[in-house]
Design brief:
The complex is a heterotrimer. By secondary structure, chain A is mainly α. Chain A has one domain. Chain A contains twelve helices and one strand. In chain A, α1 packs parallel to α10 and α2 packs across α9. Among the domains of chain B are: about 200 residues; about 475 residues, no CATH class. Chain B is built from 43 helices and eight strands. Chain B is elongated and about 115 Å long. The N and C termini of chain C lie far apart (about 45 Å). Classes of the chains: A mainly alpha, B mainly alpha, C mainly alpha. Chains in contact: A-B, B-C. β1 of chain A pairs parallel with β8 of chain B, so a sheet runs across the interface.
């Protein structure tokens, strides 16, 4: 497919939709979580308020150029992921720039933002940032393995690495979804998915409830705002990817919203039920059942 | 032409004259003796030249006016001329070397010295076996006399042991001779040989006694304790003569005797020779006394010579060339080393560190040791080559492996010794003086080694001038070593640059890729060389030696040339590596693995050319039924260079301890030599199966595990350069895996990973080298926060790690994308998954590298650190440009590469649409990805600039720190044991099993060597017993002498 | 060579002396005794040499009036081994003398003639 200038506008449109979807998703999930815990909870638009507050803070400090660029890298990673993922099946408008690379590109591009963010956080000079990053990276190595096996498995299944073609192959009924045609791979991938969502039991990286820890420790005001922007976009993009690979993709925005919501809720449910792992425990966990499932997914192909 | 009898006459006459000159002072007798030796040398060389040039006929000298059997006859043939020339020349040089000693000891010592040499001359020329006995005894007595005059500690007891042992041997020889006379009716060797039929059935005991006595004079294992003691105890000058002249003469005696022996004896002699060679080299491993070490080596080398003589029927007309090539290296180098031992005058090998004060002597020592080990361009390289090739032709693979194993053991102790000389911490900085007359002979033999090397190279068909040109360049730089760095660096760049532009049109395809990596990479890294001040003694010739090897390897059209280049490269890189700090043991490990690998390659080449014409590398295409074995030999051989798992333990230390600009040379450039070798192997031999197992599958798994282990080890390192070194191991694992795929995409992956590794590893090693240079530490936890001090270096490392980890949009991603397509195509999913896991672990060490050095807290002691020197940065920046071009235009390299690979693997090629690559599975547009990412990055950056326009810079400790205020960077910089949880979870995977395995191999070899050498208990009586038992055992083995 | 003929007996005796000599070298720790053993070893060899050259009913190879110059080859024993013996004796003498010198020097060094005391050079 050739590049046409109009695609930039299309891309901005996609970005806008995904951003808002991500923001609302955050708000709703926190609301639901609160209601389950018999609390009133936040207003569903609270994330917007937080974001605006951060962007409009009067004072901003910086520890140096990499600290400054960290969020830029992070957000570039999130937006890029959207740009390389076809959002709506069959739509030229929301196919974005997915013609420039296949699922391998997406898989590796996910690290772009992570790496930049890690570097930026590290320049802040706070040891907790670095500790959080090491934990995150260590955990990532573990859950990426079953994920890679699952993706390989479906690449073998569909004989392609192109996300669009994988989605195309799943059209024509729910039974054509990878979920049903290749349940083992889907299981492996969905377990790995838990690790990538930074929710309990795999959220020791951020340790959100205790003393501030994790990569964003030193970020605040508008730089934190950029990170928050990404926190809306990046998970949404990831959800879309999983939906495309395992749940038949989406032919409309409604389908996309419903499917990704439930995929997201999977991690939320697990997070509510299970307590947190230490990093070495989570590594071992990923290298047991998810890994075995991943290997099975390959062997069954 | 002076008649040969004058050699004896000159010696005897002078000796008698000297006897009368006791009162005329020391100088006149010395001059007379030297003149006599000079005359003897002159006569023998004159004959030698006559034989070589004028086609002189051999001449028999009858003594006393009768013909045999009524008189003693001497023969002056071509071989005799060669051997007496060797004996006399070495003796002449020895007399110069020992000028002071001989004068101190008085006229008697000169007289005895002359008699010794005369004895050896006659021993070589005589055709009468009793005469042989007489002059053997003359030499023995003279040697014992010289030993009596003194030498090292305990020289006298060594002399007694020598006397008793040689006396006993001579007794047995005499019995044998008299029986020969009884059975054959003559003492003339020619008569006895002529009448072989008549006595052969009854005279076997005579033959046994004579042959074994001659062999025993050649110090076979285990009846050679006396000889070792002599080597240790003797004055080094005498040791040199015993090792160089006496042993060489005796080898010829054995050669002379061979026509007497029946064919079955050949096997016995080969067996004895090889046993001596292997056993004494093993026993030598534990040795710490320099002269005794030389003794073990001498005994070993002479054992090999004995074995070669025993192969006379197999080797036919090639025998003499091989024998002389081996002997030439032996007597020149051994004499040189003994003489050096006299100059250094230190007993143990460790004390040779004082040699560092004298670079010229160090150079000579290196020359001798590499000559002994059979490196090019020395004679023994060609000798060993011819020998292994001939033996392979005969299918004698067992003997080939014994020879190679023995040689490897020799390398262990020789290189350890050299390592001590170059690197061992010297206790005292003694500046010892060298007398010119001691230095002169050493210099002459070293020169002779190079000349002889050229001669034997010419004999083996390795003589084209252009094949020596890169070496000549190294030699020229050696002569210019007194110049400052910037001059030498410019000369080097000019020379290599000229070569680059001269040659780059010559190569196409894969060779071109490696040409760019080797020579282009070399140029790039030499640019950094300007950062050094001073002279940098010895660096340039050695570096050029390595590049010469690499260049010659590409030029090589046959196996000899390839192996020549390979060994040159190994030698050069060994010296480069040992220049680093604390790199003694690492360089030794490197050398041993390399030599071991080279021997496997040699064996593989041997099998390949067996029974075929010529040595062309094309023969690898037609190996036939042996091809799986050839494949395994070559693959393992080359994998020692790529540091694949199991063979990797040399790499981390070697690369980490090397100098700043040497690390990229040995990592980014040198490792690719192994890749090149593997490529040649796999292209020629294709898929190989052994016992139904596809070897490629095994290789692929090795590659996968190498990548996993290398990356994981890298993540656990505290030393930045070690981290990069382990990372190299991991990356080369990818390359091995890619090659093992044996498919278009697999190879494309492998080669693009290799190219990328070349780029980013050169860059990273230079960058980290710059940091180490500035901070004076290699430990990452001692650094931190350097981004503010070394911003350019930081950017370089950032780009380096992005490329390394394969994150789009930079060129490293090409390797990852290709690799997925390749494994999908091949169906090796599990391997692919593990490799993917390894790839993710790469993020760990990448982050560690950049965080702990550049980010976090700046240490107080680094507040005044400056950016790396310009000349170190320049090549890094050039590489960045290269990476950017490759990232934006992946097809600029992948497309031509694909076309090259198309001829080997036509299936599965990529199709290109501008920068969009299509495989049967997926697609990837490098340019588009880069554009999209850059566009997004620019937009977000702009957005950030807008929203943070008011931001203000804060100081280092202005951080949120839970109610405490950090005040020391050391307590705040998180860097040590960085991935503790990861280590806790998966650290068991990097249990150092392989290192332990090799350590255990080393220890048990040492223990075995120690047990073996215990038979030399120092008791003269036991040595006699060994001799007697030697006769008895061989008697029974040969069932009474056949 | 017939059993119990003179040459047989002398040859056997020669070998016996050789063996005694070797035993002497190997079994005695005293240097002087070893050297004596060595001398015996040499002597034994000389006896064997002479025994080999012995031809029955012949005279010594000294040409004087008792020998018919016409049939000289049939009347005398083989002269060569006898010449060899002379040479060998001379050489043996030289070696023995040198050994004794060594013994003397070693005794000066350590005030001992025990060969086992001189094993500093080993392994």
């Amino acid at each position: 497919m050739e590049f046409k200038p109009i695609q930039i506008l299309y891309a901005l449109l996609s970005l806008f939709i995904v951003f808002n979807y991500g923001m609302l998703l955050q708000g709703f999930v926190r609301k639901i979580g609160a209601r389950v815990g018999r609390r009133y909870g936040i207003r569903f638009y609270q994330p917007y308020i937080d974001l605006i507050k951060n962007y409009t803070k009067r004072s901003t400090i910086t520890h140096g150029i990499m600290y400054y660029l960290g969020p830029v890298f992070r957000l570039t990673g999130g937006i890029g992921l959207i740009m390389f993922t076809p959002l709506i099946f069959g739509s030229d408008i929301f196919g974005n720039f997915s013609f420039s690379g296949d699922v391998i590109l997406i898989l590796y591009f996910m690290f772009f933002g992570t790496l930049g963010m890690a570097l930026g956080a590290a320049e802040g000079g706070h040891p907790y940032s670095a500790i959080g990053v090491t934990r995150g990276l260590a955990q990532t190595t573990a859950f990426e393995l079953p994920l890679a096996l699952a993706i390989l498995s479906i690449a073998i299944q569909y004989q392609t690495l192109s996300v669009s073609e994988i989605v195309a192959a799943q059209q024509g009924g729910i039974m054509n979804w990878t979920l049903f045609t290749n349940p083992v791979a889907t299981a492996a991938a969905m377990l790995a998915f838990l690790g990538s969502m930074m929710r309990s039991p795999f959220d020791v990286v951020l340790a959100p409830q205790e003393v501030p820890i994790g990569p964003p420790t030193e970020y605040h005001s508008s730089l934190l705002g950029i990170l928050q922007t990404n926190r809306a976009i990046f998970p949404a993009a990831k959800l879309v990817l999983f939906m495309n690979l395992f749940f038949g993709g989406a032919t409309s925005w409604w389908e996309l919203v419903i499917k990704t919501f439930f995929i997201y809720m999977w991690s939320v449910f697990v997070g509510v039920v299970y307590p947190r792992y230490r990093v070495d425990q989570s590594i071992r966990w990923f290298l047991r059942i998810p890994l075995i499932l991943g290997i099975l997914a390959i062997l069954l192909m | 032409m002076v008649a040969p009898i004058y050699i004896i006459a000159a010696a005897l006459g002078t000796a008698f004259t000297l006897g009368l000159l006791h009162k005329t002072g020391k100088t006149l007798p010395y001059v007379l003796m030297t003149l006599a030796l000079g005359l003897m040398t002159f006569i023998s060389l004159e004959w030698l030249l006559a034989f070589l040039i004028d086609g002189q006929k051999e001449e028999i000298i009858y003594t006393a006016g009768f013909k045999p059997p009524f008189s003693i006859s001497l023969l002056m043939g071509k071989m005799e001329a060669v051997f007496i020339s060797i004996v006399n020349t070495m003796a002449f040089l020895g007399s110069i070397y020992m000028a002071r000693d001989l004068k101190n000891k008085g006229v008697n010592s000169m007289l005895i010295y002359l008699l010794l040499i005369m004895g050896l001359n006659v021993v070589i020329m005589t055709r009468d076996i009793f005469n042989l006995f007489v002059f053997l005894e003359v030499s023995s007595i003279a040697t014992a006399g010289l030993l009596l005059i003194g030498g090292r500690k305990n020289a006298v007891s060594a002399g007694l042991k020598y006397l008793i042992a040689t006396g006993t041997i001579a007794g047995f020889l005499l019995i044998g001779i008299i029986f020969f006379y009884y059975y054959a009716g003559s003492l003339s060797l020619d008569d006895i040989i002529a009448s072989k039929e008549s006595w052969i059935s009854v005279g076997n005991i005579a033959l046994l006694l004579v042959l074994l006595s001659v062999i025993l004079e050649l110090k076979p294992f285990p009846a050679n304790g006396w000889a070792l003691d002599v080597y240790q105890g003797a004055n080094p000058g005498i040791g040199a003569i015993i090792s160089a002249s006496s042993a060489t003469a005796m080898v010829y005696v054995l050669y002379k005797m061979m026509p007497l022996a029946s064919e079955a004896w050949n096997y016995v002699i080969i067996g004895i020779g090889l046993l001596s060679f292997v056993a004494s080299n093993i026993a030598g491993i534990k040795q710490t006394n320099a002269q005794r070490l030389l003794g073990y080596s001498s005994v070993g080398q002479i054992g090999l010579a004995v074995a070669i003589v025993g192969m006379h029927q197999w080797l036919g007309s090639g025998l003499m060339t091989i024998l002389l090539a081996m002997l030439a290296s032996h007597f020149l180098a051994k004499a040189g080393l003994f003489w050096l031992a006299g100059i250094v005058n230190k007993e143990t090998t460790k004390e040779w560190g004082i040699l560092r004060n004298k670079p010229v002597l160090l150079f000579l020592m290196g020359t001798f040791i590499f000559a002994l080990l059979g490196f090019p361009p020395f004679p023994s390289f060609f000798g060993k080559w011819e020998l292994i090739m001939s033996l392979s032709d005969l299918g004698q693979y067992g003997i080939v492996s014994l020879i190679l194993i023995g040689s490897l053991f020799e390398a262990v102790y020789m290189l350890r010794w050299l390592g001590y000389a170059i690197k061992e911490d010297k206790e005292e900085a003694v500046n010892f003086s060298i007398h010119w007359e001691k230095f002169l002979p050493v210099g002459i033999v070293a020169t002779a080694l190079y000349a002889a090397g050229y001669f034997f190279g010419w004999k083996s068909g390795y003589s084209d001038w252009y094949k020596y040109m890169p070496l000549a360049f190294a030699a020229a730089l050696f002569l210019l070593d007194f110049l400052p760095v910037y001059v030498k660096n410019s000369i080097t760049l000019l020379g290599m640059g000229w070569y680059f532009f001269e040659m780059y049109t010559q190569y196409t395809g894969l060779k071109f890729v490696f040409f760019i990596i080797f020579i282009g990479g070399g140029l790039l890294i030499f640019l950094a060389g300007y950062y050094k001040k001073g002279k940098r003694v010895g660096f340039y010739p050695l570096a050029i030696l390595m590049y010469a090897g690499l260049a010659l390897m590409l030029e090589a059209s046959n196996m000899l040339e390839f192996f020549f280049a390979w060994e040159i490269m190994t030698a050069g890189s060994y010296f480069l590596i040992i220049r680093g700090k604390k790199s003694m043991t690492h360089a030794l490990n490197y050398a041993l693995f390399s030599i071991g690998g080279a021997f496997l390659i040699l064996a593989g080449f041997g099998i390949t050319q067996a029974g075929k014409d010529g040595l062309s590398l094309e023969l690898l295409y037609q190996v036939g039924s042996m091809s799986p074995y050839v494949f395994i030999l070559l693959a393992i051989g080359f994998m020692t260079k790529t540091a694949s798992m199991g063979l990797h333990i040399w790499l981390p230390g070697a690369h980490a301890e090397a100098e700043t600009d040497v690390s990229p040379m040995v990592s980014a450039v040198l490792l690719k030599a192994g890749v090149y070798g593997l490529i040649i192997t796999m292209i020629s031999l294709g898929n190989q199966f052994i016992g139904g197992i596809n070897i490629q599958v095994v290789l692929a798994w090795i590659g996968v595990l190498t990548a996993l282990m290398g990356n994981m080890m890298a993540a656990f390192q505290e030393d930045a350069k070690r981290l990069l070194a382990y990372s190299s191991i991991g990356q080369l694992g990818y390359v091995l895996f890619g090659l093992a795929l044996m498919s278009h995409l697999g190879w494309l992956t492998a080669i693009s990973v290799a190219i990328n590794h070349f780029l980013f590893k050169a860059m990273l090693f230079l960058a980290i080298g710059g940091v180490v240079l500035r901070t004076k530490t290699k430990y990452m936890y001692q650094m931190g926060g350097l981004i503010k001090k070394m911003p350019i270096t930081f950017i370089v490392v950032l780009i380096g790690i992005i490329t390394l980890s394969g994150v789009p949009p930079l060129s490293g991603f090409a390797g990852k994308w290709l690799f997925y397509n390749a494994i999908l195509e091949k169906g090796w999913y599990l391997q692919g998954a593990v490799l993917f896991f390894a790839g993710v672990i790469a993020f760990l060490y990448c982050f560690r590298l950049i965080h702990t050095i550049f980010l976090g807290q700046l240490k107080d002691e680094h507040r005044k650190v400056k950016e790396a020197p310009f000349w170190l940065l320049l090549p890094q920046i050039l590489v960045i440009v290269g990476i950017m071009v490759l990232s934006a235009f992946p097809n600029s390299i992948l497309k031509p590469l694909g076309e090259v690979l198309y001829s080997y693997f036509p299936e599965g090629a990529l199709s290109w649409n501008d920068q969009l690559a299509n495989s049967i599975y997926g697609y990837w547009d490098g340019k588009m990805v880069l554009y999209v990412v850059v566009a997004i990055f620019a937009s977000v950056f702009l957005w950030a600039l807008i929203v943070t326009r008011k931001s203000q810079k804060v100081k280092q400790f202005n951080i949120v720190y839970a109610a405490e205020r950090p005040f020391r960077p050391e307590t705040t910089h998180f860097a040590y044991n960085f991935f503790a949880p990861f280590k806790k979870a998966l650290g068991f995977l990097v249990y150092p099993g392989i290192t332990n395995f090799w350590n255990r191999v080393g220890q048990s070899t040492m223990a075995g060597a120690d047990a073996l050498r215990k038979i030399y208990n120092g008791n003269g009586q036991a040595y006699v017993l060994h001799i007697v038992l030697f006769f008895i055992v061989v008697y029974f083995i040969t069932a009474g002498g056949f | 060579m017939k059993f119990l003929s003179p040459e047989y007996i002398s040859m056997a005796a020669g070998f016996l002396v050789i063996l005694i000599g070797i035993w002497g070298i190997l079994a005695n720790k005293n240097l002087i005794r070893m050297i004596i053993g060595f001398s015996l070893f040499d002597t034994g060899i000389h006896i064997v040499m002479v025994a080999i050259s012995y031809l029955k009913d012949r005279t010594a190879p000294i040409i004087d009036e008792t020998i018919n110059t016409q049939e000289i080859a049939k009347q005398i024993t083989d002269p060569v081994p006898q010449a060899l013996v002379l040479t060998a004796i001379v050489i043996g003498l030289g070696v023995t003398a040198l050994m004794l010198v060594y013994a003397m020097k070693l005794h000066k060094e350590k005030k001992s003639l025990d060969i086992t005391k001189f094993n500093d050079l080993k392994w």
